[in-house]
User: Fold these one by one.
Assistant:
Number 1:
Amino acid sequence: MKSLKILFASQYNSTNSAKFFVKSFALVFAVCVIFVVPGIAEPTEEAAKEPVFWLWAFLGRLHPMIVHFPISLLFIALLMELLGRRSNKFNAAIRVLVYTGAASAVLSVILGLLLAGTEEYGSDVFSLHKWAGIATMIFGLLSAAAYKLSNRTIQKTLLTITVLGVTIAGHYGASLTHGEDYLTSVLPGNNAPAGEQNAASNFVLAAQTGPLNETQVQELNLQVRTIFAHNCYNCHGSAKVKGELRLDSKDAIFKGGEHGKVIVPGDVHKSELLRRIKLPRSDKKSMPTKGKGLTKEEIAVIEYWIKQGAPWPSGQLKSLYRVAELAPRLPNIPAATGDLNNPVDLFVNDYFQKNKIKWATPVDDRTYIRRVYIDVTGLLPPPDSIDVFLKDARPDKRSVLVSRLLSRNDDYAQHWLTFWNDALRNDYTGTGYITGGRWDITKWLYNSLKENKPYNEFVRQLVSPTKESQGFVKGIKWRGTINSSQSTEMQAAQNVAQVFLGLNLKCASCHDSFISDWKLEDSYAFANLFCDSILEINRCDKPTGIMASRRILYKELGEIDTSTVTQERLKQLADLLVQPKDGRLYRTLVNRVWAQVMGRGIIEPMDAMDNAPWSQDLLDWLAYDFVESGYDIKKLIYKILTSKTYQLPSVGVKEPEQIMSPNFVFNGMLRRRLTAEEFADAVSVAIQPVYADSMAVFKLLPEDFNKSIPFARASLVKNDPFLTALGRPNRETVSTSRTSQASLLQALELTNGSKFNDAMKYGAAKWKNKYPDTKTLVKEVYRNAIGRLPGKAEEDVAEKALGNAPTEAAIQDFMWAVALHPEFQLIY
Amino acid sequence: MKHNWNRRDFIRQTGAATLAAMAAAAPVPAILSGCNSKNKIAGNTSADTVILLWMAGGMAHTETFDPKRYTPFETGMEGNRVLSTFKSVPTALDGINFSEGLQSIGSVMDKGTLIRSYVAADMGHILHSRHQYHWHTCYEPPQTVAAPHIGAWVAKELGPKNPVIPAFVDIGQRFTVGEAEELKAFHTAGFLGSEYAPFMIPDPSEGLESVRPPVGMDAKRFEKRNQLYTDLINKSPLSELGSDYQKESLKRSMEQAYMLLNSPEAKAFDLSLEPKASYDIYNTGRFGLGCLLAKRLTQQGARFISVTTEYEPFMGFDTHENGHTRMVGMKKMIDAPVAQLVKDLHQSGHLDRTMIILASEFSRDMMVEGRPDAKVQEQVNQPDILNDLKFYGMHRHFTDGCSILMFGGGIKKGFVYGKTADERPCKSIENPVKIDQIHQTVYHALGIPEDKQYEIEKRPFYTTPDAKGKPVLELLDKAKA
């Protein structure tokens, strides 16, 4: 602080010395660097926790006042410079303005840094403001020096830069205080789309004067409830009611807690709630008791709301949560451009332009054929087919290939069976079967996939089932007493909602949801559709004495005659669910299929279809087109697989967290690992069957299933430790995606587990006979497993390991190494 | 070096532990708001290894660690008179008796705590697999998401203690016996992901098979095979694709598996290396050898080991008839190895940081099925008058009073907690303990916070339901806890 005094004194007293400016500049710089910048300029959590010495806090808070000095002084200096450029009549005044402006800039920076150190800032905007401010200070000092020493041009240039700097710093400073969209939000055409308003922390209203209109009341109220939900519900909600206070409904908020009212509309001083959230965090009474406390902006919103009379909208409240549109939507297809004409590509192109992404060169034929073989049939391409495909000169050979693969109905069914078994929790063994409390739907499912049953019909038959397809809604019936949220009817409600509608009802089947607007009663009403009697509502497994009604989740879809028998009701439900106007059903499906072949959904997680997609247009169009194209899953797959988008090079991420991040940016298919079934089948095709054909669950499969199969596809065998280790779930609960990451247990299973190593062993014996010559053997193994010939270096390594007359053991080990090769294990 | 591995090192080293947020089904650490700030590992932990000794099938407390009045068998006797079918014998603790046949365990009770008031859940019609599911996961089946086994939670939160020994090892349970599917339902890491799943060793004498090169492959060939694998990857043009977590995690787990299978610690799995005198004490069958394996693994740095007497319907402790006769054998099976395990770990100094828990899904009684005030459907044909020795024993499933033993890892020494009535129904009458309290006590000793949770399908899933359970701090030595 001493340095400050010197600086001030000298600034005002100086009449001559140029040295003086150099000195003071160095001094200020030193102060910043040594004392301020490293210590408190970066607001850290530690800094926030430690109570700050009051003087620093006080001085810091002078920053918003002092900043106006450099802004106006320097600005006027520049104005005078421009106005008085002919005459020199302002010169003396300009000089004074520049000196004082620079000095106040220095002071502002120091106070600003103090402020940042004592309060919680930490955004990009803050950082921009900070550095713009420091830059302004430096240029201010340089300008001051120039007005002492230099010529007119340099003076003017430096001053202009300084004013520019102070403008930028001022803008970001205002953004910090008033919110980033303070300025831009009032510009025409800049209204955020409805869905996104929730996400933005908009502090727009607080600056508004005069009475609020209905929309503004809604918005403000939503902000207030959002703040309560994030900070207060945990202890003052339906789960816990501390101090007899609940903040999750209008009545509760105005009723107050054990010590009376917490909000006095219009009176910020008498509102206990406001007082408590404004208390220093060190105060025992400060609210919330845990965590960091509310931000300044959040407190300001609450304060403003109370000041405005704590308005509460009269009608339907706006949701705290993002809620996706139910209805289908047909977005305009962007005009064809360049060589793009598949609508998928046009929407992605639009997305790429917005995200400044360039189209990469499509993958080569070899990569493409491997991808589509696996994605359509779950099998590796035979080497001869690869050769033919590579030589094929037809320009449309890729789409021809996809069509051909899609017409291989059994292969297609045996691949997609795995996905649907997981989703519909259909398994060949498992809990429940032993006591007759569970039914498998394998026959029905296999046939449905094989004949490519239209998806509306597929859903209809699962929801309103025949004997063959009843397993899905009948659920698993356990002996003994079970939690009421796990009655078979509630299982049906949860699973129909999750699998078909991408909606999580699990919370709301025990209590009102904390993460959506779904209420306990909604879940019970939906479950009652599956129930012969009427279920009594249980809240957290405690009977409430209230009987639920019967109702479909989305009333926009229509009404169900509640007086009729269950079978008839389910028929009605199925009809309502599969209507084209149930856009959600079809968005959920196209998103799942997209994720299967692209490695990530357009929306993630796929069971949370209220989340934001990375491209709403693409999702909406795919769903709309799916309905228009006759609910045809194969057509959907064809559209995706023949798109340029699908043909983009695969993308890898360093950390799996990036995949689910809300900031995910689509660049192309995500590299995936083969699933347990795909891996087993790949080994079976390329090297040696992992499962003998007798291992397939023939009894559960359709009667006309061709029993003379070359090998049993892994999707058709019972779960075993090998498949479990590689990620096949136990299908007691719905599972709509698998993790793709390797683990030690998997590696152990592959390193010394008998299932896989036996296949290698038998394969080696077979291959030794077939290819006694090492060179040919190496080539053939590579061709079959990797889909290409080995490179020279690879050949050398392999031949060296095998020797001229390879033993079975050597061949076995070679095949093992190839099967564990990332190029074998990954879909790239 | 290997004993100081913590979770973070493990993640850094192996990368395989990254939270795979691939799926909706993948857990994300819950960060709903500022309200979850309690998620900090407590400073003082008292244990870093857990051994669960599982008495599968329902072990009668009155025939083991909580004996009541002994009534010898007489033809034509009234069943209701029988509370215990064995004499009581003294233990190392004054005034505390065990049932005859458990003298060895009795002799080490000065090193541990006896809980006599465990109360199992009330789940209606009693099924072993459901109660076992409940004991091991702390959740009543069925659940809407796959609940993890307590061993998987520990593996997830603390990682392996020694990187080459799987964090969660399960010894003794085969899935080829009855109710296999029901057993598999809780022998799982559930939504935590297969990385934390149990490493199953159904037969401890074949434990080595699981951690050594495939049968018929000698060390040299094993090494050569691994070298070939590495060389082929290095020469592959795929490396042009750059690295991503898939490829890296695959490579790293393969390296880790190789390291494990090649490591000197793998010898811990080889029971034939145990001195004969010691081996013979443990060798009462698969359970006894399981205890021996548990000892050897603990000494090399295991994290969570479960050893079971194995559940098979109507076998082992699941005595639907001949209860008395069967219990003679079952006690022989457990007495020596359990006591020896405690002694050996005490002697090698590992007991200080290793918590041993001996427990069962519920108890048994001759007359009461379920609990006295909530009787459920009878499953056992038990006459009121005993005309045949085969009816002499505890055959019904009793949930209202069970015994648990705990040793080491900060557990009080020579302590008894809770009490059951001395007359039928012999239910808990003092300090009843529920499963979530037991789990929380274990987590507390390990330093896993009470409200540890993951967000799964946007809902918080806690180690114990709604994080309501509290550790029973009375069980822990204050000097350590």
Note: Confidence is low (pLDDT under 50) at residues 1-26, 30-42 of chain B.
Number 2:
Amino acid sequence: MTATQTDISTGEVAAEQRVTEEELARRARQKELTSRWFWRILSYVVVLAVWEFALLDIFSWLRGNPLDPKLLPGPSEVLATFGEIWGEGTMPAAFQATLTRIAVGFGLSFLIGAMVGILMQSKWFEGFFKDAVLISLSAPGLIWVLITAIIFGNRPIGPTIAIILTTFALVTVNVSEGIRALPKDLLDMAKSFKVSLYKRNRQIVIPHLAPYLFTGLRFGFSIAWKVTVLTEVFSSSEGIGFEMRISAVLFDMSEFLTWILAFFFFALFLEKVVLEAIERRYFRWRQAVVAS
Amino acid sequence: MADIKIKNLHKEFGTGDDKVVALEDVNLDISGHSFVSIVGPSGCGKSTLLNILTGIETPTSGTVDITSDGRVAAPGYVFQAARLLPWRTVTDNLLFVQEDRSSETKQRCQRYLEMVQLGDKGDKFPGELSGGMQQRVGIARAFCIEPDVLFMDEPFSHLDAITARALRRELHHMWAETKKMVVFVTHDVGEAVELSNRILVFAKGGRLTDDIGVELPFPRDPSDDEVAVAKAHVLRKFEELDLLAS
Amino acid sequence: MTTTETPRRNDVSASTAMSSAPNPLAVAVRIVKSPHFARLLFPVFLFAVWHITLAAVEQVWPFAVDVLPTPGEVGAFMWDEFITDTLARKNLYETFYISLRRLMSGFAIAMVLGTALGLAMGLSRATNAFCHDWTMAILAMPALAWALFNSIIFGFDDRGPILTVILAGIPFVIVNVREGVRNTPRELFDMARSFKVPQSRIIRHVLVPSLLPFMFAAARYCFSIGWKGLVIAEVFGGQDGAGWTIKFWYDAHRAHGVVGYAAFFVIFAILFERLVFEPISRRAFRWRPQLQTEVVEEAFTENQDLQDQERPVR
């Protein structure tokens, strides 16, 4: 409708109208935003209130018999436990252990995944790696965790292999997707202008592939941290997963929830805030293309 | 025979300071076996007029009556994009808009499919057809509900020149054969001159500025002198309007 | 030269048909170069790596691993399981039946609830704003957390694993259905209305088919994620089922049992995909000329949602 309106209007009227139109659109956006934030904040209040006051009854009803309140601490209690654990000073060390494992495992996985993705451009290697990718995508991460745990015991190589086997295929799929979507027209254009191979790679291929690699990175990370925590449950004596196992064995739900929620928020922060901010910053041209 | 009577039609969007006039005091009568083209620059209100005629929008003031022999006329539509259900076969797409699925209806659908030269494509899905074929299905769909009047909104603008030309010829034959009234919106003056016996020119601001009768024999070849002259005549009107607007 | 120009896809069949061809060497080269051959080569390659690792462990680094099962052990174990000769409490078929039953209950509940929520979120902005963050939070929460939590709350019965399946799968259903509602083909609804097609027929022929691909993607996802969640839940809070059984072999420290059972997991997931989802997909989406049936291709729906947040509101 906006298009018609601006087209029809003429002369001074148009300028005047455009201002009011913009103003109107701005006001509508403002209203929409306010309403969105209202519902959003309300949802936080409602969920936290339900958790604090009603969740125990809900679970008791689901179970069919009353649940021990100690098994389901409310948010206030979890927050208090967080304060305690933070005071003890064990949290940064556990975070560091887990993050190191993720960095090593997923770093290797990313390299391997990207290499396989590049190799899979050849039909022969596609056939060769097809089942590997399929298995990696469809198998529960748990089985790699258990297999590596039983084979390698507490050696650090076990979790690394488990992380690689669960996440490499995600990177592979993104990379081959990116290569398949290489802008042939641009490459042909560059060739017809006799642009050198180096420059073609530097100016066309790499900028094109970067966002795909980044998607692989972001998506792979979201899986990698979960597997890492799982490996720590089985074959490690430090890290978030280890702490979770200890508190679960001791039926200390408050500590259990504290550990998992602390790392959950941290991972979510990395995933949604840091990585997405990087993506928005460096790959803005891509969104612009999509939008137009 | 269908009759379209438009009296003092007025359409505006928004209120107060944001008011925009899309159509201003349009008076119009269309009757009989006419092929009427509505042309004008973008934003002249021709789409709005079509939306009002097809009932998608309601006028701010004024009346629109579309009748056929005293009763409310049955309309048919051809859209800019074919708008076929991609998950139904060509035949099922035609049956989708029918009132029943009797064998007569099926035969009628088949007849119109043959008329647009797609008699053997009934079992195909739209995705398996080319853009031109899809638009043919769209035309067959509009004709096979046997409407009193057909509304078309730039139906050939998405097609390549050669396909569009072939379809224009087919459309003309179908119009001549079925004696339907056609109201055809386009921005292509050549197309309008080639197909219609009446051209309505709209200017920015939604005013009907010209009502041109085209009394040339069919079939019209765009390269014929007379057709070229008629086209030039309409184009000149456009230029005058452009001067007025700027 | 003509041999290299034939499409590679047909290589194997073409070469057998032309077995009387004069040059056997060219035929052999063509077979080796075919992707099908490469596909068959992969398991061979795996076995080779396995054997080399075994040899290396025995002779070079005896302390690199705790225990490494041989292919023979694993094969024998899988065969024993296959003919229901097992040390575990329930045989292979009973075990997978129990797990499948739990998976199906959770899957059905997740599909129903998720569809309802997805529709509500697609239709109402307020509902979307209310539920969006929590959907994302549930989506990002590892199944391990649900599994441990539910095992503590519910102890060792069916409800813990089923709830885990629901919580693991439901965000995918919500996100896909919402996307489906947002992508309804408005121009087709307009078309149908202008032709005065009755409402019931519009629902059946326009609304349902347009939502179907999204529902199908949702089902596929919910199933595969639910399966992954279920085995973790059974490991921590089960007395039977596939997850419990693999943990049984793990606790018994039978490496060949763990590897063999893991292989059954993979086979189960792939069989289900091939025998259930692919035939349904082929039948239901005949109209889509360029349909990608591979799961691999659909592994990105989750990302859609991430981009979706940045899209301006209309």
Note: Chain A touches chain C through 75 residues (CB under 8 Å).
